[in-house]
Specification:
Layout (H helix, E strand, L loop, with lengths): L11 E11 L5 H14 L4 E4 L14 E8 L2 H14 L14 E5 L19 E9 L23 H10 L7
Antiparallel strand pairs: 1-3, 1-5, 2-3, 4-5
C-alpha cells in the first residue's frame, strides 16, 4: 500500500507574531517600552494609539498609549520559543481562539533568555499574539481583485493550532 501524501498547501505556518506593551500614556514609560521591545525582538517598535476616548484613564482618541512590534519569518518562531520559556507556565486552552490564532502574556521580561535587567526600564511584562495561516489560500479572502471565500475544510481549527504549538513550538498546553 502507498502512504497517503500530506497536502503541502494545508500545512500550518506562522503568518506573524505581534509583541505588545500597553503603557497607558506617552512619555518616558512609552519610550522604555519601545526600547525593550526592540531589544527583545531585534525589530523596530512603533507606538499604538487610542481608538476611543476614555475619561476614566484620561485618554482621548489618538493618544499614544503603547508600543508594539511585528515579527515575520524565521525570527518569529525563535521569538515565540523564547517567550514561552519566559512564561514559565503552560498555555491554557483559552489562549487559542476558534480561528486558529493564540496569544499569551509574559509577566517579566527578565525571564526572556538573553535579556538583562535594566534599572532604567524596570520590570515590565508584554503580550504575544500569534497569527496562523495555511501555506496556500488565505490571500484569496483579503485581496482586492477577485476576492473569494475560503472553503470550510481549509479553515484553521483550534485543535490544529494546539497540535502545532505542541509539536513545532514545544509549548506545554494544559
Amino acid at each position: 500500500m502507498m502512504a497517503e501524501k500530506e497536502n503541502v498547501m494545508r500545512t500550518l505556518v506562522i503568518e506573524k507574531v505581534t509583541a505588545n506593551i500597553g503603557v497607558g500614556n506617552a512619555g518616558e514609560s512609552l519610550q522604555n517600552a519601545k526600547i525593550l521591545l526592540e531589544r527583545l525582538s531585534g525589530k523596530k517598535a512603533v507606538s499604538t494609539k487610542a481608538k476611543t476616548r476614555n475619561p476614566v484613564w484620561k485618554t482621548k482618541k489618538g493618544d499614544e498609549i503603547g508600543a508594539k512590534v511585528t515579527i515575520r519569518g524565521p525570527g518569529a518562531v525563535e521569538f515565540i520559543k523564547k517567550s514561552l520559556v519566559a512564561r514559565n507556565k503552560p498555555l491554557s486552552e483559552r489562549c487559542f481562539d476558534d480561528s486558529g490564532n493564540f496569544a499569551f502574556g509574559v509577566g517579566e521580561y527578565i525571564d526572556f533568555p538573553g535579556a538583562k535587567y535594566d534599572p532604567k526600564i524596570g520590570i515590565i511584562g508584554y503580550d504575544v499574539a500569534v497569527t496562523m495561516k495555511r501555506k496556500g489560500g488565505k490571500r484569496v479572502s483579503s485581496r482586492r481583485h477577485a476576492k473569494s471565500k475560503i472553503g470550510a475544510k481549509h479553515e484553521i481549527t483550534r485543535e490544529e493550532t494546539v497540535g502545532f504549538a505542541k509539536e513545532v513550538l514545544g509549548a506545554n498546553v494544559a
